[in-house]
Protein backbone atom coordinates (compact mmCIF):
# COMPACT_ATOMS: atom_id res chain seq x y z
CA UNK A 1 0.00 0.00 0.00
CA UNK A 2 1.27 3.47 -0.88
CA UNK A 3 2.02 5.87 1.97
CA UNK A 4 -0.55 8.59 2.54
CA UNK A 5 0.34 11.97 3.98
CA UNK A 6 -2.26 13.72 6.07
CA UNK A 7 -2.39 17.06 7.83
CA UNK A 8 -3.75 16.90 11.36
CA UNK A 9 -5.09 20.32 12.36
CA UNK A 10 -4.71 20.59 16.13
CA UNK A 11 -3.26 22.88 18.75
CA UNK A 12 -2.74 20.03 21.18
CA UNK A 13 0.80 18.61 21.27
CA UNK A 14 -0.21 15.63 23.44
CA UNK A 15 -2.85 14.52 20.94
CA UNK A 16 -0.35 14.81 18.11
CA UNK A 17 2.22 12.73 19.98
CA UNK A 18 -0.28 9.94 20.64
CA UNK A 19 -1.57 9.96 17.06
CA UNK A 20 1.97 9.73 15.69
CA UNK A 21 2.80 6.89 18.11
CA UNK A 22 -0.37 4.94 17.26
CA UNK A 23 0.23 5.35 13.51
CA UNK A 24 4.00 4.76 13.69
CA UNK A 25 3.79 1.33 12.04
CA UNK A 26 1.13 2.34 9.53
CA UNK A 27 1.38 3.73 6.03
CA UNK A 28 -0.04 7.05 7.20
CA UNK A 29 2.33 9.92 7.72
CA UNK A 30 1.05 12.79 9.83
CA UNK A 31 2.17 16.40 9.78
CA UNK A 32 0.36 19.05 11.77
CA UNK A 33 -0.92 22.60 11.59
CA UNK A 34 -1.99 24.62 14.57
CA UNK A 35 -4.83 26.80 13.27
CA UNK A 36 -7.14 28.71 15.55
CA UNK A 37 -10.58 27.26 14.91
CA UNK A 38 -13.52 28.42 17.02
CA UNK A 39 -15.43 25.43 18.43
CA UNK A 40 -19.21 25.57 18.15
CA UNK A 41 -21.64 24.27 20.74
CA UNK A 42 -23.68 21.15 20.04
CA UNK A 43 -23.41 17.38 20.02
CA UNK A 44 -19.97 15.77 19.69
CA UNK A 45 -20.79 15.10 16.04
CA UNK A 46 -21.82 18.70 15.34
CA UNK A 47 -18.71 20.06 17.06
CA UNK A 48 -16.45 17.65 15.14
CA UNK A 49 -18.05 18.35 11.74
CA UNK A 50 -17.88 22.13 12.10
CA UNK A 51 -14.26 22.02 13.26
CA UNK A 52 -13.12 19.88 10.33
CA UNK A 53 -15.06 21.88 7.72
CA UNK A 54 -13.45 25.09 8.92
CA UNK A 55 -9.99 23.50 9.12
CA UNK A 56 -10.22 22.33 5.49
CA UNK A 57 -11.33 25.82 4.38
CA UNK A 58 -8.43 27.50 6.19
CA UNK A 59 -5.95 24.93 4.96
CA UNK A 60 -7.32 24.85 1.42
CA UNK A 61 -6.94 21.08 1.22
CA UNK A 62 -7.65 17.71 2.81
CA UNK A 63 -7.13 17.34 6.57
CA UNK A 64 -8.12 15.54 9.72
CA UNK A 65 -9.23 17.03 13.01
CA UNK A 66 -10.05 15.41 16.32
CA UNK A 67 -12.40 16.30 19.11
CA UNK A 68 -12.30 14.65 22.50
CA UNK A 69 -15.19 14.48 24.94
CA UNK A 70 -15.30 13.16 28.49
CA UNK A 71 -18.81 12.07 29.36
CA UNK A 72 -20.19 11.39 32.85
CA UNK A 73 -23.01 8.86 33.03
CA UNK A 74 -24.57 10.60 36.05
CA UNK A 75 -24.66 13.87 34.07
CA UNK A 76 -26.19 12.25 30.97
CA UNK A 77 -23.00 12.63 28.96
CA UNK A 78 -21.88 16.07 30.12
CA UNK A 79 -19.34 17.73 30.21
CA UNK A 80 -18.87 15.90 26.87
CA UNK A 81 -17.24 18.16 24.26
CA UNK A 82 -17.02 20.97 26.84
CA UNK A 83 -14.53 19.07 29.00
CA UNK A 84 -11.72 21.45 28.06
CA UNK A 85 -13.46 24.34 29.83
CA UNK A 86 -14.52 22.22 32.82
CA UNK A 87 -10.97 20.94 33.22
CA UNK A 88 -9.52 24.44 33.00
CA UNK A 89 -11.89 25.94 35.57
CA UNK A 90 -12.36 23.01 37.96
CA UNK A 91 -9.23 20.88 37.70
CA UNK A 92 -9.01 17.22 38.71
CA UNK A 93 -10.54 17.77 42.11
CA UNK A 94 -13.48 19.69 40.69
CA UNK A 95 -14.25 16.92 38.18
CA UNK A 96 -14.56 14.53 41.14
CA UNK A 97 -16.62 17.01 43.16
CA UNK A 98 -19.11 17.30 40.29
CA UNK A 99 -20.10 13.69 40.95
CA UNK A 100 -20.52 13.91 44.72
CA UNK A 101 -24.02 12.79 45.65
CA UNK A 102 -24.57 10.84 42.42
CA UNK A 103 -24.86 7.05 42.54
CA UNK A 104 -22.22 6.42 39.84
CA UNK A 105 -18.82 7.69 38.79
CA UNK A 106 -19.03 5.82 35.46
CA UNK A 107 -17.72 7.80 32.51
CA UNK A 108 -16.58 7.31 28.95
CA UNK A 109 -13.93 8.99 26.87
CA UNK A 110 -15.07 9.67 23.31
CA UNK A 111 -12.76 10.58 20.48
CA UNK A 112 -14.13 11.80 17.17
CA UNK A 113 -11.79 12.07 14.20
CA UNK A 114 -13.09 13.91 11.18
CA UNK A 115 -11.65 13.56 7.68
CA UNK A 116 -12.28 16.18 5.03
CA UNK A 117 -11.31 15.55 1.41
CA UNK A 118 -11.03 19.33 1.00
CA UNK A 119 -12.94 22.61 1.25
CA UNK A 120 -16.65 22.34 0.47
CA UNK A 121 -16.87 18.58 1.10
CA UNK A 122 -18.75 17.02 4.00
CA UNK A 123 -16.32 15.55 6.57
CA UNK A 124 -16.62 11.89 7.58
CA UNK A 125 -16.56 11.02 11.29
CA UNK A 126 -14.83 8.13 13.08
CA UNK A 127 -15.67 7.59 16.75
CA UNK A 128 -13.82 5.64 19.41
CA UNK A 129 -15.09 5.10 22.94
CA UNK A 130 -13.41 3.79 26.08
CA UNK A 131 -15.51 3.19 29.20
CA UNK A 132 -14.23 3.75 32.71
CA UNK A 133 -14.79 5.81 35.83
CA UNK A 134 -13.76 9.11 37.36
CA UNK A 135 -11.36 8.77 40.31
CA UNK A 136 -9.29 11.15 42.46
CA UNK A 137 -6.18 12.05 40.42
CA UNK A 138 -3.38 9.44 40.33
CA UNK A 139 -0.24 9.57 38.21
CA UNK A 140 1.70 12.24 36.31
CA UNK A 141 -0.23 15.37 35.33
CA UNK A 142 1.14 15.65 31.80
CA UNK A 143 -2.07 15.36 29.84
CA UNK A 144 -5.45 16.85 30.78
CA UNK A 145 -7.76 14.58 32.72
CA UNK A 146 -5.67 11.39 32.22
CA UNK A 147 -5.01 11.16 36.02
CA UNK A 148 -8.79 11.10 36.77
CA UNK A 149 -9.83 8.47 34.23
CA UNK A 150 -9.54 4.79 35.13
CA UNK A 151 -10.49 2.63 32.15
CA UNK A 152 -12.71 -0.39 32.82
CA UNK A 153 -10.74 -3.59 33.50
CA UNK A 154 -7.63 -1.74 34.75
CA UNK A 155 -6.56 -0.61 38.19
CA UNK A 156 -4.39 2.18 36.76
CA UNK A 157 -5.52 5.54 35.45
CA UNK A 158 -4.59 6.57 31.90
CA UNK A 159 -1.86 8.72 33.48
CA UNK A 160 -0.38 5.80 35.47
CA UNK A 161 -0.20 3.48 32.47
CA UNK A 162 2.77 3.32 30.17
CA UNK A 163 1.98 5.26 26.97
CA UNK A 164 2.04 1.99 24.96
CA UNK A 165 -0.72 0.58 27.16
CA UNK A 166 -2.94 3.67 26.89
CA UNK A 167 -2.40 3.70 23.12
CA UNK A 168 -3.70 0.10 22.86
CA UNK A 169 -7.03 0.74 24.59
CA UNK A 170 -7.68 4.45 24.33
CA UNK A 171 -10.64 6.28 22.80
CA UNK A 172 -8.09 7.80 20.39
CA UNK A 173 -6.70 4.40 19.34
CA UNK A 174 -10.21 3.06 18.72
CA UNK A 175 -11.19 6.03 16.56
CA UNK A 176 -7.91 5.91 14.62
CA UNK A 177 -8.45 2.20 13.87
CA UNK A 178 -11.64 3.17 12.01
CA UNK A 179 -10.02 6.13 10.26
CA UNK A 180 -7.15 3.89 9.14
CA UNK A 181 -9.55 1.30 7.71
CA UNK A 182 -11.33 4.05 5.76
CA UNK A 183 -8.07 5.50 4.42
CA UNK A 184 -7.08 2.01 3.25
CA UNK A 185 -10.22 1.87 1.10
CA UNK A 186 -9.31 5.26 -0.43
CA UNK A 187 -5.78 4.08 -1.16
CA UNK A 188 -7.12 0.98 -2.93
CA UNK A 189 -9.19 3.26 -5.17
CA UNK A 190 -6.17 5.48 -6.02
O1 LIG B 1 -6.26 13.52 29.82
C1 LIG B 1 -6.55 13.60 28.64
N1 LIG B 1 -6.37 12.50 27.86
C2 LIG B 1 -6.68 12.45 26.56
O2 LIG B 1 -6.49 11.44 25.89
C3 LIG B 1 -7.20 13.66 26.02
N2 LIG B 1 -7.58 14.02 24.79
C4 LIG B 1 -7.96 15.29 24.86
N3 LIG B 1 -7.85 15.75 26.11
C5 LIG B 1 -8.24 17.07 26.63
O3 LIG B 1 -9.66 17.19 26.53
C6 LIG B 1 -10.01 18.46 25.96
C7 LIG B 1 -10.55 18.20 24.58
O4 LIG B 1 -10.76 19.37 23.85
P1 LIG B 1 -10.44 19.44 22.31
O5 LIG B 1 -10.75 18.12 21.67
O6 LIG B 1 -11.08 20.66 21.74
O7 LIG B 1 -8.84 19.57 22.28
P2 LIG B 1 -7.84 20.84 22.13
O8 LIG B 1 -8.62 22.11 22.03
O9 LIG B 1 -6.85 20.75 23.21
O10 LIG B 1 -7.11 20.54 20.76
P3 LIG B 1 -7.63 20.78 19.25
O11 LIG B 1 -9.10 21.08 19.32
O12 LIG B 1 -6.83 21.90 18.70
O13 LIG B 1 -7.35 19.47 18.55
C8 LIG B 1 -8.71 19.27 25.97
O14 LIG B 1 -8.60 19.91 27.22
C9 LIG B 1 -7.63 18.20 25.85
O15 LIG B 1 -6.38 18.57 26.41
C10 LIG B 1 -7.36 14.78 26.86
N4 LIG B 1 -7.03 14.74 28.15
MG1 LIG C 1 -10.10 22.35 20.73
UniProtKB/TrEMBL annotation:
It is found in: Cytoplasm; Nucleus. Signal peptide: none annotated. GO terms for cellular component: cytoplasm; nucleus. Its EC number is 3.6.1.66. Its cofactor is Mg(2+); Mn(2+). Keywords: Cytoplasm, Hydrolase, Magnesium, Manganese, Metal-binding, Nucleotide metabolism, Nucleotide-binding, Nucleus. It catalyses: XTP + H2O = XMP + diphosphate + H(+); ITP + H2O = IMP + diphosphate + H(+); N(6)-hydroxy-dATP + H2O = N(6)-hydroxy-dAMP + diphosphate + H(+); dITP + H2O = dIMP + diphosphate + H(+). GO terms for molecular function: dITP diphosphatase activity; ITP diphosphatase activity; metal ion binding; nucleotide binding; XTP diphosphatase activity. ITP binds at residues 10-15, 51, 67-68, 143-146, 166, 171-172. Binds 1 divalent metal cation per subunit; can use either Mg(2+) or Mn(2+). GO terms for biological process: deoxyribonucleoside triphosphate catabolic process; nucleotide metabolic process. Pfam families: Ham1p_like. Mg(2+) binds at residues 39, 67. Its main location: cytoplasm. InterPro entries: ITPase, ITPase-like_fam, RdgB/HAM1. Belongs to the HAM1 NTPase family. PANTHER family: INOSINE TRIPHOSPHATE PYROPHOSPHATASE, INOSINE TRIPHOSPHATE PYROPHOSPHATASE/HAM1 PROTEIN. Homodimer. Pyrophosphatase that hydrolyzes the non-canonical purine nucleotides inosine triphosphate (ITP), deoxyinosine triphosphate (dITP) as well as 2'-deoxy-N-6-hydroxylaminopurine triphosphate (dHAPTP) and xanthosine 5'-triphosphate (XTP) to their respective monophosphate derivatives. The enzyme does not distinguish between the deoxy- and ribose forms. Probably excludes non-canonical purines from RNA and DNA precursor pools, thus preventing their incorporation into RNA and DNA and avoiding chromosomal lesions. Pyrophosphatase that hydrolyzes non-canonical purine nucleotides such as inosine triphosphate (ITP), deoxyinosine triphosphate (dITP) or xanthosine 5'-triphosphate (XTP) to their respective monophosphate derivatives. The enzyme does not distinguish between the deoxy- and ribose forms. Probably excludes non-canonical purines from RNA and DNA precursor pools, thus preventing their incorporation into RNA and DNA and avoiding chromosomal lesions. This is Inosine triphosphate pyrophosphatase.
Amino acid sequence: MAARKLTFVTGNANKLKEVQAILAESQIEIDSQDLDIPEVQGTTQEVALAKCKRAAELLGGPCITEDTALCFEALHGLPGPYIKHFMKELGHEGLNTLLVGFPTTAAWALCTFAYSAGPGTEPILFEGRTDGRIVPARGPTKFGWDPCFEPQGFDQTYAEMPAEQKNKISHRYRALEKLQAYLCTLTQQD
